[in-house]
Design brief:
With 148 residues, the protein is mainly α. The protein has one domain (35-144): Hyaluronidase domain-like, CATH 1.10.3450.10. It contains five helices and no strands. The chain has helices at 42-53, 56-69, 75-94, 98-114, 126-144. Helix 1 packs antiparallel against helix 2. The chain is globular. It holds the Pfam family DUF309. InterPro entries: DUF309, TTHA0068_sf. It comes from Pseudosulfitobacter pseudonitzschiae. This is DUF309 domain-containing protein.
Length: 148
């Protein structure tokens, strides 16, 4: 099975609802392993690998396990939610839903503010996430304006 640069198994394709086939049930279950420290778990690493490789639905699927393992409420949970919503924004952009994309980019910013006291997520610093959300929002605006 091919692997992404971080060592995470690569799916055969990126799932985009309404455009591509869904992955087999349970395919991601082995990747949802959570250690004592959810920030330094196989699930966190896999989710970030998927985000960086453009597997946005897959990122959300795996990181949900990390989010659920964190205390509620917590600043760490907000940070993971920021990554999940960024992946969701990128997915909505791929689906041709720019208004949903813009709404999700605002949510990313809100979660980054709420999680600002969190320790950083390895491989996804708040400035990087904010820049990615800003770039995503800019693309969505261009789609809305008919420029893309």
């Amino acid at each position: 099975m091919p692997e992404l640069p971080g060592g995470t198994p690569a799916p055969t394709h990126a799932y985009v609802p309404g455009q591509t086939a869904r992955h087999p049930e349970g395919w991601f279950d082995p990747l949802k392993t959570i250690d004592a420290d959810p920030f330094d778990s196989p699930a966190m690493r896999a989710g970030l690998d998927y985000l960086h490789a453009g597997y946005f639905w897959e990122c959300h699927e795996v990181l949900e396990a990390v989010w659920l393992a964190l205390p509620d409420p917590s600043v760490e949970r907000h940070m993971v939610q920021a990554v999940i919503q960024l992946a969701n924004a990128r997915l909505k952009l791929a689906m041709g839903r720019p208004k949903a994309t813009l709404r999700l980019c605002v949510m990313v910013q809100e979660h980054l503010v709420a999680g600002r006291a969190s320790r950083p997520i390895p491989g996804a610093t708040p400035p990087e996430l904010l820049e990615w959300a800003d770039n995503t929002a800019e693309l969505a605006k261009r789609v809305t304006n008919g420029e893309l």
